[in-house]
Structure formats: structure tokens, C-alpha cells
Design a protein that fits this description.
- By secondary structure, the protein is α+β, with helices and mostly antiparallel strands.
- The protein is built from six helices and four strands.
- Helix content is about 40%, strand content about 15%.
- A four-stranded mixed β-sheet has the order 1-3-4-2, with helices on both faces.
- Helix 1 crosses helix 5 and helix 2 packs parallel to helix 5.
- The N terminus is likely disordered.
Amino acid sequence: MATRALIALAALAVALTTAAAPAEGRGCVSAKATTAHASKRQIVRATLCQLNHTRASHGLSRLRLNKKLSRAARRHARDMARRNYFSHDTLGGGSFLDRIRRTGYLRGAHSWIVGENLAWGSKGYSRPEVIMRMWMHSPGHRANILNASFREIGIGVAYDAPVRHGGRPAGTYATDFGAKH
């Protein structure tokens, strides 16, 4: 199942590479940089910028980076790249909710909502603007990005592919969305 999803995501990436860059992402520093030409901090900032431009163009509030959500996202991106899998569930069966809970993000919350988007790409497909384009053309990923309830995000990027021989340079992205009250 994960292999089929990976193939579908890769096919979508190929189909979208000829599409024009989204207008809402213009002006984001490093949005066109591959993982070979930018630091992880630059890639994270460019991804956040792309997300917030897209949300703003739909009349939604900006997402703020959250350290605990970022820790969950970073750990998952690294784990997928290191252990060669691509899934919301870890190889041990843990879900993104389990990972977010372990950071303490939900502690003390009366109510909350969380979501997760994953992506990966090699070479030019590792650019934040291409990853964003793929997410916006995928109904589930788009729904998370345009969910007005989300207020915070964690972004993790591993500079490797979650599959053997995934190409270089590569980037595996995990974004954990959240809001709590």
C-alpha cells in the first residue's frame, strides 16, 4: 500500500513539474532551492512561507512554527529517510498522533485538532515550491493546508529519500499541523 502511494505521489510530481509556480508562493526566499543548495533552516522557512502565502490567498490566518510539533515532524522525517519507508505510521505502528503526544504538545489541552502532510522528492522535486504544488493537487493534503482550525505547524525535513536509491539530492518532508484550546 505504501509503495502504491509513493508511486502515485511520484507520478503526481512528474505531472506537476511542467505546471507554473503558484502565485501565492512568489517571494519566498529559497522556495526554488533544492536540498543540495539550501540549509534545512532555509528549506523549513521557505516551506512555511509557501504554506502561509497559500493560506493568505484563501483568507486564512498564518501558521506559526511550534517547537513541539517541529520536534515530532523532524523525528519522523529523519526516521522515514533513515529506515527507508514512507508512511504516517512508523515501522513500529506508531501514528502521527502518538508522536505529537510524546512531545507534550497536547498536554493540558481541553480540545485539540491535529493533522499531518508528508512528501518527498529528489533533485528538482525536493524544492519547497514543488512539494507545495504536489500537496495542493492532493485533496487530503490540500484540506490540511486550508483547514481554518489549524494555528500552528511543525516542519521537519530530512536530506535523504525514504527509499533506497531515491536519488540525490533528496528531501523527505513531514509537517504536523495543530491547534489546541
